[in-house]
Amino acid sequence: MIATLVADHVRWRHSRREQDRDTLRITFTEYLAALSTARDAFAGMEPSSDRVGKGHVAIGHHGVYAAQQQLELVAQRTLIDKAGHATLSVLDFHDTVAVGHASDSSEYVHAWRAARQARSALIEEMRIALRRA
Q1: 114 with 93: CB under 8 angstroms?
Q2: What is the CATH number of the domain that holds 65?
Q3: Which of 81, 105, 114, 127 is 20 to 30 A removed from 120 (C-alpha atoms)?
Q4: DSSP letters spanning the chain
Q5: How many alpha carbons lie under 13 Å from residue 102 in its C-beta half-sphere?
């Protein structure tokens, strides 16, 4: 009987770990999708001085803040910090486009690369978290 209880407990722990990993994977995917959607939308927007400094409103419309709040519920601090950095880099990209920098300008390229690098660093942290889970 004890062996059965131990085996059941081991199966339960394994199942729970799998559920936790699935929750992380889904949450990570939703955040990355929202962030990419916002960045891609910003890449195609027309310059407008009215939009400068208002990227936080636009990024909210793409669900980034909602997805980031879900991350805050399930992820560790280092990952949350990298997600915050990725969000800020997309906000910087928004402002770069809003002020009128063309896609071939050094400012645009720099902001685009910064957003991609922040996203890449975040993805690496997500992979580490998934391996730990």
Answers
A1: yes
A2: 1.20.120
A3: 105
A4: -HHHHHHHHHHHHHHHHHHHHHHHHHHHHHHHHHHHHHHHHHHTSPP-TTTTT-HHHHHHHTTHHHHHHHHHHHS-HHHHHHHHHHHHHHHHHHHHHHTT--TTSHHHHHHHHHHHHHHHHHHHHHHHHHHH-
A5: 2
How far does CA 6 lie from the centroid of its chain? 39
pTM of the model as a whole? 0.87
| Average pLDDT of the residues in 31-39 | 97
Contacts of 31 (CB under 8 A, 6+ apart): 64, 67, 68, 70, 71, 83
Q: Which of 39, 21, 23, 16 is nearest to 92 (CA)?
A: 39
Q: What is the mean pLDDT of residues 5-15?
A: 68
* pLDDT score recorded for residue 5: 67
Express each pLDDT in 42-61 by its tens digit: 999 999 988 888 999 999 99
More confident of the two residues 49 and 9: 49
Which structural domain range is residue 74 located in? 2-132
Q: How high is the pLDDT of residue 7?
A: 67
